[in-house]
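Need tokens for this chain, all 327 residues.
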Amino acid sequence: MELSVFLADLDHLENLNETMELIEAPEDKNNIFVCMNKNNSVNQESLWILKQYYIRHYNAEYFSQIERIYFGNETCEWLIPGLDDVQKALKICQKEDYQFTFVTPFITQKGLKKLIPVLEFLNKQENIEVVFNDYGMLHLIETQFTNLIPVIGRLLIKMKRDPRFSKCRFSAASIQNLNINNIIDNQTAALQLNSIDNPVYQEFLKGKGVTRLGIDTLPQGINLKELYRNSKPNLKFPIDIYWPWTYVTCSRSCFIRDTAAHSRYHVLTNEPCPLSCKDFECILESDKEMQETIIRGNTVWMNSIKLYEYYFNQNFKRLIYQPYIPI
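Here are the structure tokens for all 327 residues:
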């Protein structure tokens, strides 16, 4: 499984050794995590898991296994990196012999003006992937920036994204004469369905030059065998996984920005964004069992760190590791 690192901040790339540095904690490493915010504690917990996984399966340190850098933002056009930052990021990757993937969000005409110079620059390079989360971006790549390699983003992969999912039992009275286990299996299979299951959609993406896709690590799992069974042999995409931060949902109206700028009253304006998402987050709590869920920026994120064993043991082609929430 190829290891890629997804970074939304140039500083994290310029200091990649620190970004991916595992703090040697005491035997009871939980003591050190309580002193950190959630972003940093998940960073350290996930690095511990990566260390154990790559030593066990590859007899190597995880840092030496990095092959590709994902750079950019997938959920907010205010966070699209400028041309200077992209040039610096690509230069670092070329120096360290990393492949480069540029990540783009859903966009308006305003965001497009910022992206065009970046795409023009990247189009002059070789073997550059661009993750699109907007079909308008796919059209641009297909018609104007044909040297770029389009990769469908996870925001466009329609899946059941609910951190509250659990395999619960039903009372016998409500399902008389039915097999409970079959019901649970059938429900799980339904929850594992996604838009890529549709062969017509697969053919559409292939026709547009899309080469691969990435999916999120969700509690209900995904049945790769079933997905590939429904695919024509020539339509099988390499499938990658994002971990440990799972995208749940987002909006053009940003809750975190509204919290910092009270005068906006949750109304979209053309005022410059203060980028409050860089500074703080909101942790969602429930009286029900659920995956840890956080609002950062305009997006709800699920902490899927505990799902690693299930997903790491399947035949995914690329692990897109997020050291921090990609904001």
